Amino acid sequence: MNSSNSPRTVSLIGAPTDVGAGARGASMGPEALRVAGLGPALQARGVQVLDRGNLSGPPNPWLPPVDGYRHLDEVVAWNRAVHEAVHGELQQGRMPILLGGDHCLGLGSISAVARHCRETGKKLRVLWLDAHADFNTNQLTPSGNIHGMPVACLCGFGPQALIEIGGHVPAISPKWIRQIGIRSVDEGEKRFVHEQDLEVFDMRYIDEMGMRHTMELALATLDANTHLHVSFDVDFLDPEIAPGVGTTIPGGPTYREAQLCMEMIADTGLLASLDVMELNPALDVRNKTAELAVDLIESLFGKSTLMRK
User: What is the model's pLDDT at position 2?
Assistant: First the structure.
């Protein structure tokens, strides 16, 4: 971890594709985040920002699923590109921020982080902020959309071409993940999540125990040798405040709950990589979801709403 007096260096990596999604438009997410001022907002926090531009990959062919997977070859190509880009930034000691794109790309990003942790002897903790568990397989999926499968793939359940990205199967252990904000899980997927013993703080848990207690547990047992990765699906947020996503599920965290979540992550001082996924400006209202995402990312980087001395 950088000492507090050396500025953090961040690399923005755009991944403009909706190839894993069921709705078109997440391919425009990276540009919407830039338009909402993500780079300057981070610079204002004393962060050195390098915008690496956008990765390129195959277009979205918009075809039906084959063997339970939709657009598998294209998803593999995009995830390989993301993996190499994210790993390259980590090797240079920079913090990658992946601008999605749909959440299937979390596979390429997190497999790169896991590879970096293996190479540097670090522990890994992944916070998966999402309305969905994304723990489907081709047997369980009702849609074949691979953005519903990245966590399962990371844990070794998925097509060979995807689970092998990163050179280690499984890329991560389910024990390293904390899922927060979950409120939409398919029946078969639910059983599978329980079988694999994923730690899930769903919305009922957050309603009963509060966001503070939830985050205290999700961030427990971190230490200075832990790489903290946040995979932030914008549909984590309640659609009332964040309409710009393809899979809106009502009953998500409020603005205040989301702020507290981000501030508590920032307080650890351990955030080392970030995905910002599923922003769909085609479904947004005057880019307000992108602006909210930028606001919350600023909080991840230490912008506090608090008037504390």
Answer: 43
